[in-house]
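Recall that a protein's primary structure is simply its ordered list of amino acids. Everything else, from secondary elements to tertiary packing, is in principle encoded there. The following example makes that idea concrete.
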Amino acid sequence: MTRLAVALIALTWAAVAAAATPAGQLTWALHVTIASRFLDPAENDGLITPYMIQYALHDALVKPMPGGINTPSLAESWTVSKDGLAYDFKLRQGITFHNGAPITPEDVRFSFERYRGSGAKILHERVARVESVDARQVRFRLKEPWPDFMTFYGTTATGAGWIVPKKYVEQVGEDGFKKAPIGAGPYKFVSSSAGVDVVLEAYEKYWRKVPPIKRFVYRTIPEETSRAAALKNGDADIAYLLTGPVADEVKRTPGLRLVAPLLDGVFWLDFPDQWDPKSPWHDRRIRQAASVAVDRNAVNQAETLGFSKPVGNLIPPHFEFAKAMPPAPYDPAKAKALLAEAGYANGFDAGDFYPFPPYFSMGEAVAGYLQAVGIRTRIKTMERAAFQTAWREKKLHGVVLGIIGSAGNAATRLEPYVTKTGVYANGVLPEVEQLWERQARETDRKKREALLHRIQDVLAEQVIHAPIYELGFIWGVGPRVEQAGAGLIPGFAYSAPVEDLALKRGTP
C-alpha cells in the first residue's frame, strides 16, 4: 500500500471520527416550569410534557418512534404468547446506563414495580408478575388476556415502560435520583437549577446512534413574549408554544420560522361538579349550553393561527378505535335557550375556571364565550405542577380546560377520565364502566371497537366533556437549526428523537 493510500485512509477515518463526535449546543425556551418529576419516568402523570426531557435522558423497552407507536428500543424484540398471558422482551446486547452499568431484566422489573404515575393502578392490577428469564430476556405475566397491555406499557400513555437503574436508585434514594438522575437515553444529566433549567450532554455510547449535538439546555421562560425575544436574539434555538400575534410576529421575522405539528392532544372542557346533584352542572342541558356557546373556529384562529383542528371527541380521530364526531356548532342562541329550559334564564355563577397552564389566553377566550351566554366564571391560573396535583386530587371545581397529549388508542385516552381507576375522573357512569370492563377483556377487534364506540357515544350524548380542538402546537425555530424534530414522531409535541436533531454546518 502506498503512502498516499495510507494517508487517504487516515484522512477518511479522521473525517468519520469527526462526524461522529458531538459538537455544539441547542437551547430550548420552555413554556412550563421544569419540575423535578420531569426527570423521573416513574412519576409520569398521563400528560406528554415530561417526555420533552425524558426522550433525551431516558429510554424505554418499547416507545413511539418514527417507525411506529410500538418501536423496539432497549428491547430489540418482543413477543406475546398464544394465550395472551405472557409478553417476552429481549434486551439488546451490551446496552448500558449512563454510569456504565448494564441494563438487566431486574432493572425492568424494578422500574415497573416502582412506577406510580397515571395508569399505575390498572397496570399493577392486571400484571401478575415480572420474571427474569435469563440475562437478556424479561417476561410479563398477565392475570388474564389484556389487548391493551402494549398500548399502556409501550407508548407514552404511561411511563411504566421507561427503565431506570435499580442499584443506583436504591443507593441514592428517591430524592437523590431526582437531583442527579441516571438514565439510558441519548443524553446524560449534567446539572439542573430547580424550576429554571436542565443541562444534558451527549451519551456517545447510546445504542441507536451517537447524538450529533454535544449539549442540550432546557430553559424555563414562562412568559410568551420573553420566549419569542430569546429566539430573536439567539438566546434560544427553539421556543415552544407561541400563540396569536406573537406567533405571527415570529413568522414574519427574517431567519425564524414556525412549525406546528398537529398533536395527539385534544383540548376539552371538564365539568368536575356534574357529579354533584346540587350543582347546576349536574343538568345535561347546562353542559350542552357550555359546549355550543364556544366558537371553536374563532378560538383556533386567534390562538393557533388556524393550525388546530376542531373536534367533537376527546379522542384524536386518528387513534385506533376512535369514532369520528363533528365539533359542536357555535350556537349562542341555543345555549341561552338551554339555560332557560334548565331554570337559569338569567345565567348563573358557574364558579372558577381553571385553564391548563400555561394556556391562559385560551382559557380567557373560552370563558368569554361562556360569559356571553350567562355562564359566569372566574379565571384561576396556577403553575403547571400545582394544577396537575390539584386536578389529580379532585380539588378543582367549576370548569377545567384540560388537554392530554400522550399516545395510545381510544381505551388508553379514556381510562384516566371516565373509569373508576382514572386519576382525573371525578365520577363514573355505570354504563360506561360496564362497557369499559367488557372491552378490556374482548380479544375480537370488531367487537371491541363496537364497545369503545358505544362508550364514546354515551359520553357525547351525556356531554360529559366538551371537546374544543386537536392542538396545532406552534414552535418558533431559529436560524442555527437544521433539524428541529417537529413531527418526526407523529402526534408528539416536542423535539424527538433528539439523537436525530441537527444544527446547520458551521454552527458553533
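Confidence is low (pLDDT under 50) at residues 1-18. The longest strand covers residues 262-270.
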